[in-house]
Design a protein that fits this description.
2 domains; 7 helices; 4-stranded antiparallel sheet; alpha+beta; Immunoglobulin-like; 5-stranded antiparallel sheet
Length: 340
């Protein structure tokens, strides 16, 4: 490990990700694309929040020397070519690229509030809001690996009551297990024109390897992005991060932190999982990255010369080192529930 790395990371070989199920019910197996009389209550999912001490540091202008690693951004572009399509009058599902780790769904009905649920082989149900104003092909990851997925679309009846208007079973075989964590999706939206992608390229300029890229991006985050308490108090269910806005204002909630860093790393060809779960009792978001020939780097890690400690970009930028280490310890205070 080169001494000029600004932070070190705990290295964990690939293993099975154990995630607790955060759903009050599971969807029944159904392969039909036709509406049914199924009516159920779907509560709005909470947007991750946290309370942290605010701190901010100006980015330092240091002499820079080009590293040996190619820092050219590679932004994979999701497509909806219409080769494999399932649809009815309410929804249009393009499954042409499920082997790439994603699908697209477009709502074509007339309801003012619509939910999408995807349940994969891990039996964890992911709930999303669908755009209802203008029919849009929205991208959703198939992050639960190979196997059967159930895709359901629900229209709102009243309150938290919804009725099923579309249901489709898919058999997914990924061409590459890391693809779901390289593409953009609804929560992690970026393209070659994103300011965040350009910033990631700039940060990676001095790097010789992937681990150094993670270090550069991580340190930029903790020095320049501060926690937005006002937004945290007013954020609505279904909130989607705008990574370029976060980069411009240099503030955001934990989901903003995670989405911005994930976008920069994915555009640098580093598979990155944006994870949502609990840090202690607080609903929270953090990251894991995959480093070639090393394995998954679970969360953000600090090394004091003797011990490894797990951290994440929100806590690291807003919590003093001792308090952070005492709380995080060996990572047992973290519980992953959802991965994007």
């Amino acid at each position: 490990m080169k001494q000029r790395l600004l932070s070190l990371f705990f290295i964990n070989r690939i293993g099975t990700l154990s995630a607790a199920v955060l759903a009050a019910f599971f969807l029944c197996s159904c392969a039909s694309s036709s509406p049914s009389s199924d009516t159920r209550s779907i509560p709005d999912s909470d947007t991750p929040k946290t309370e942290s001490s605010d701190s901010s540091n100006e980015e330092e202008n240091l002499p820079r020397e080009k590293g040996s690693r190619d820092n050219t951004p590679v932004c994979l572009v999701p497509e909806a070519p219409g080769v494999t399509v399932y649809e009815n009058e309410y929804a249009h599902l393009d499954a042409s690229n499920i082997s790439e780790g994603y699908l697209t769904v477009k709502y074509t009905g007339s309801s003012g509030k619509v939910k999408l649920q995807i349940t994969g082989p891990t039996e964890i149900t992911y709930t999303y809001n669908l755009t209802v104003t203008t029919p849009t092909d929205e991208v959703f990851p198939l992050q639960s690996g190979n196997g059967q997925y159930i895709v359901n679309v629900f229209e709102n009846l009243e309150g938290t009551k919804y009725t099923t208007v579309f249901s489709q079973m898919l058999d997914v075989q990924l061409s590459d297990e890391f693809k779901p964590f390289l593409y953009p999706n609804q929560y992690v939206t970026f393209s070659k024109d994103s300011q965040a992608v350009a910033k990631g390229q700039d940060l990676a300029y001095v790097c010789n390897n992937e681990l150094e890229v993670v270090s550069e991006v991580y340190n930029f985050m903790i020095k320049n992005i501060t926690y937005d308490y006002e937004e945290a108090e007013t954020v609505q269910s279904g909130y989607i991060p705008d990574i370029d806005e976060v980069l411009s204002t240099k503030k955001g909630i934990c989901l903003d932190y995670a989405a911005l860093m994930t976008s920069m790393l994915r555009s640098q060809q580093i598979p990155t999982r944006m994870e949502i779960g609990y840090a202690g009792t607080a609903y929270h978001a953090w990251l894991s990255t995959y480093i070639t020939d090393i394995g998954w780097v679970n969360g953000m890690i600090e090394f004091d010369g003797k011990e490894w400690s797990l951290m994440d970009p929100t806590f690291a930028s807003n919590t003093d080192d001792k308090s952070l280490k005492d709380f995080i310890g060996d990572g047992k205070n973290y519980s992953v529930k959802y991965v994007y």
